[in-house]
Design brief:
The structure holds two protein chains of two kinds.
Chain A lengths: L1 H23 L5 H19 L1 H5 L4 E8 L4 E7 L1 H24 L6 H20 L3 H19 L6 H32 L4 H4 L3 H6 L3 H15 L8 H4 L5 H10 L4 H13 L3 H24 L3 H22 L2 H32 L10 H4 L1 H15 L5 H14 L5 H22 L18 H19 L2 H15 L15 H21 L3 H41 L4 H27 L9 H19 L3 H21 L3 H22 L11 H27 L5 H14 L4 H9 L1 H23 L3 E2 L4 H16 L6 H5 L1 E2 L4
Antiparallel strand pairs in A: 1-2, 3-4
Chain B lengths: L1 H19 L4 H22 L24 H32 L13
The chains are: A mainly alpha, B mainly alpha.
Chain lengths: ~800, ~120
């Protein structure tokens, strides 16, 4: 199974190359067929495992990754993951072909294929993962690839905003999900899902149960666009249509549903589970259907319809009886087939007439017969018309929900389906019938890569409806995995005339009537109703999102202006002040108790040296000329070297003497070109700064005295003293430490010196720039700048803008 | 001597910090120099003072016969001296170029990044 993921990732890596290679042959969309071989191969590989999965054999891989963190790449194939895996790879292969036609001639096609394949690997990993943390990583990878794909048209601001919104909502949901999964792992004492299944009972009675359930559900709801997080999905339609068809209808948005299904045998079956999931699902289901009718853009209608179906899936999983679990999987499969197809149809129409507003479309059945056929097949399945698989799915749905006490959920289901049937009218009937409109005058059919994939999906939906035995097997295994026990499923196209069939007919009749009403422009009668929804639901959560985004940005700007105000002394003041305050707060009492009189063991020359240092420091501070200040600094340096001499550190003293001399020479050389000191601050400021400085200095003194009273032995130095001769064959221990025991540190030091030297050299060789006074000069300056950048020198940004004095 | 050096270190820190709080960028540099001396002396004092006993092992011995100055702080300070010289030299040249380019030594006038 790891090989499959690897194969898809390799395909992703070579996708741009394939695009360039095929592009040079003059057949741009051919690359899609080539790349589709990989997911198609995985699809077939999955099919070969079908018998073992159906017979409940264990198909799994376990690779330890970071054992200390309980991280393992453990993959496992059961009925549920097989079902999802087939959808991900099968539809994925079709999408690659379709994308080739959709973006034919576009340079970014290779890029698109790469991202689609990356997403495919992430999604496949997500549904195969048997470890909660591995699952989470793949989960986040799908969010990130989705972000990149929604923002594919990165030159459009609305596209970037939609991508960011999707990322923030699903990524934020991911952040909530992670603690939920960790709580689950802690409660169950394992991160392997297959292990957790055996301890489902204790987990449900664990005190973490409710928090973990809420956290996990928030993650799942954001991903699957459940109310009130649904608003990102319609905006995600800014992505090119192949992406909408793949990520935002067939696969990624179902990841939340998948997670709920996957965890059902562990967490499901409680009242909390039922009410939280079923109620959110029911609200989302009805809301999506209503909002779908409000939209006029083909893709928006489909997006809202998708939200409605996602709500249905959530509702069915929330109810969680065997029958509803089977129904959920049936609806899932039917939806993947018809919605993927319908998105491709919408893309084909958009590609042909550059118009997605259903009010502007009409009469396309003659110009685009193949697309029309695909739309018809998918539409029948979506509306639940005999003999498609959509019909079977809807029958099992109605029947399973009908068995629940109270008819609220059934009524909501029927209502939402009436809305969806009407939506089918707008997507599959309105654009194709009637006379041609202005926009559709020059409509033409795309190539086989354009209409082929949706037709394949449509026929597959029909075939599954006519021959439901094979898929029953898979649904039985899949729902068995969700239920945690064996489930038997016998789907059939014809159940005889019963209540469910009558409800189906009622739905169809209602939907057709609704479409007819809306189509006749009688919309205004329903307007107050729609406004209510628009105000409360469509814009509500979206407003909260925008408000949050604005507030966070404002806060960030405000605190940046406050904390990063660009005044160096402000930063210094903050650092010094905080250090002093924390020292006194942490050590205040202890300092006072430890400060006892120490023996004042001093000698005359030592006192002299210390007084000289302090006096020189005062002179440096009060100096009016730079020469005096540099001289005083030098005196401090030499006196410090003197201290080193007196207390057994001749190496230090020698180094200090050399360095100090060099420093003074360097300062004098540079300062001779700098202006004399100007007094820039007021005496009040100077007083304040002096106070800060004195307090800080006093703190250091006290801290140092304290450090000396609490000093312990020198265990580290003892080691060096004892081993200097025996191991390093050196008698000067300081030198031995530097060049032997800690030789790597010294190497680092030399590197720092070298880097500083390169920096100094680059800055010095940078010739003095002058202000540019003409455009030619400016151009020359830019050239100069780029030349030097190429040479690897570090340039002050301002210097590059001006002109080389010698060049003028 | 410990107390005396502790006061000296405190004085050097105070002088260094005061100079670094100036608006004049040249004074800032002097402050940086004072601060590095202060830091070196701090390490040296904190490591413990031993008069005149150099950490060198006499010929024919494998370990020092008497208590000698602690070699570890000395090794640290040796590194620190060199590094602070590098920092100081780089800062000096940077400031020198900044003054040449922008014509001011007032830090408040260097606030914008693209003057």
């Amino acid at each position: 199974m790891l090989l499959w993921l690897l194969a898809i990732l390799i395909a992703a890596a070579v996708a741009p190359t394939v695009h360039r290679g095929v592009g040079s042959l003059g057949r741009g969309s051919l690359g899609g067929w080539v790349l589709a071989v990989v997911p198609a191969g995985v699809f077939i590989a999955l099919l070969t495992l079908w018998p073992s999965v159906v017979n409940q054999q264990d198909v799994s891989v376990f690779v330890d990754w970071v054992p200390a963190l309980n991280l393992a790449v453990s993959l496992r194939l059961d009925g549920l993951s097989l079902l999802f895996g087939l959808m991900v790879t099968g539809i994925g292969a079709l999408i690659l072909v379709y994308a080739g036609a959709y973006l034919k001639g576009d340079d970014r096609l290779g890029h698109l294929w790469m991202l689609l394949l990356l997403f495919m690997a992430a999604m496949l990993g997500l549904v195969l993962a048997d470890n909660l943390l591995t699952l989470f990583i793949f989960w986040e990878l799908t969010s990130i690839t989705s972000y990149l794909l929604i923002g594919f048209n990165s030159d459009r601001p609305e596209s970037r905003a939609s991508a960011l919104q999707a990322l923030l909502v699903t990524g934020g949901g991911g952040l909530v999900l992670l603690p939920g999964l960790i709580l689950l792992g802690l409660a169950g004492n394992s991160f392997e899902i297959s292990m957790l299944l055996t301890s489902a009972e204790p987990i449900r009675e664990h005190s973490f149960y409710l928090p973990m359930l809420v956290l996990i559900l928030v993650g799942a709801f954001t991903k699957s666009a459940q109310f009130p997080f649904h608003f990102w999905l319609p905006n995600a339609m800014a992505a090119p249509t192949p992406i909408s068809a793949y990520l935002h209808s067939a696969t990624m948005v179902k990841a939340g549903v998948y997670l709920i299904a996957r965890l059902h045998p562990i967490l499901g079956g409680t009242a909390e589970w039922f009410w939280m999931i079923a109620s959110v699902g029911a609200i989302t289901m009805v809301l999506g259907a209503v909002l779908a009718l409000r939209a006029t853009d083909l893709k928006q209608i489909l997006a809202y319809a998708t939200i409605s179906v996602l709500g249905t899936l959530t509702l069915l999983l929330g109810i969680g009886t065997e029958a509803t679990l089977v129904a959920a999987l049936a609806v899932l499969v039917a939806h993947a087939f018809y919605k993927g197809g319908l998105f491709m149809v919408a893309g084909a129409i958009d590609h042909s007439v550059h118009q997605r507003d259903v009010r502007e479309l009409g009469g396309l059945r003659i110009a685009m017969p193949a697309t029309f056929a695909a739309a018809g097949l998918a539409g029948c399945s979506m509306a639940g018309v005999l003999p498609t698989f959509g019909f079977i799915a809807k029958e099992t749905w109605y029947e399973s929900v009908g068995h629940i006490a109270g008819n609220g959920f059934l009524a909501a289901s029927i209502l939402s389906n009436i809305g969806l049937v009407a939506a089918v009218g707008f997507v599959c009937v309105k654009p194709f019938f009637g006379g041609r409109t202005e926009s559709t005058q020059h409509a033409h059919e795309g190539g086989p890569a354009m209409w082929g994939p949706p037709v394949v999906l449509g026929i597959a939906g029909l075939a599954l409806g006519l021959l439901p035995t094979r898929i029953s097997e898979l649904l039985a295994t899949g729902s068995g995995a969700i239920a945690g026990r064996t489930v038997s499923v016998h789907l059939a196209l014809w159940h005889g005339v019963n209540v469910t069939l009558l409800l189906s007919l009622l739905t169809l009749a209602g939907g057709i009537t609704l479409y007819w009403i809306l189509r006749r422009g009688q919309l205004h009668r329903l307007k107050p109703y729609f406004y209510f929804f628009e105000g409360v639901i469509q814009y509500g959560p979206s407003r909260v999102y925008h408000w949050l985004l604005r507030t966070v940005n404002q806060f960030a700007r405000g605190q940046t202006a406050l904390l990063q105000n660009g005044y160096l002394r402000f930063y210094l003041f903050t650092m010094v002040g905080l250090t002093v305050a924390s020292v006194w707060m942490a050590l205040g009492d202890e300092l006072r108790s430890h400060l006892e009189p120490m023996p004042l063991d001093v000698r005359g020359h030592e006192v002299l040296l210390a007084c000289l240092i302090l006096a020189a420091a005062v002179v440096a501070v009060r100096a009016k000329t730079w020469l005096l200040a540099v001289g005083a600094l030098g005196v401090v340096g030499y006196c410090v070297a003197g201290v080193f001499v007196l207390f057994g550190a001749p190496d230090l003293a020698m180094t200090q003497f050399v360095i100090e001399t060099l420093t003074v020479v360097l300062f004098v050389m540079a300062f001779s070109r700098l202006p004399e000191f100007r007094r820039l601050s007021t005496s009040a400021t100077r007083g304040r700064d002096a106070l800060i400085a004195v307090v800080a200095g006093a703190t250091i003194t006290v801290l140092l005295l304290f450090a000396m009273t609490v000093r312990s032995n020198h265990p580290i130095s003892d080691y060096y003293l004892a081993h200097s001769v025996s191991e390093a064959h050196g008698r000067n221990v300081v030198n031995v430490i530097l060049v032997d025991f800690r030789a790597l540190d010294t190497l680092g030091e030399i590197t720092v010196l070298a880097i500083a030297a390169i920096g100094v050299y680059s800055l010095l060789t940078l010739r003095p720039p002058k202000q540019a006074d003409g455009e030619d000069d400016a151009a020359e300056g830019t050239e100069e700048c780029s030349r030097k950048d190429a040479a690897g020198t570090q340039l002050d940004s301002t210097a590059g803008r001006a002109v080389d004095a010698e060049g003028v | 001597m410990d107390i005396l050096l502790a006061i000296t270190v405190g004085g050097l820190y105070a002088a260094g910090i005061y100079m670094m709080l100036r608006r004049n960028v040249v004074k800032l540099l002097i402050g940086l120099g004072l601060l590095s001396h202060a830091a070196n002396l701090l390490l040296f004092t904190a490591g413990g003072l031993v008069r005149g006993r150099v950490p060198v092992i006499p010929d024919g011995e494998t370990r020092p016969l008497v208590i000698v100055a602690d070699p570890l702080p000395q090794a640290l300070i040796l590194t620190a001296i060199v590094i602070s010289f590098a920092v100081l030299a780089f800062a000096l040249v940077l400031i020198y170029r900044t003054y040449q380019t922008l014509g001011t030594e007032d830090l408040d006038e260097l606030k914008a990044t693209d003057t």
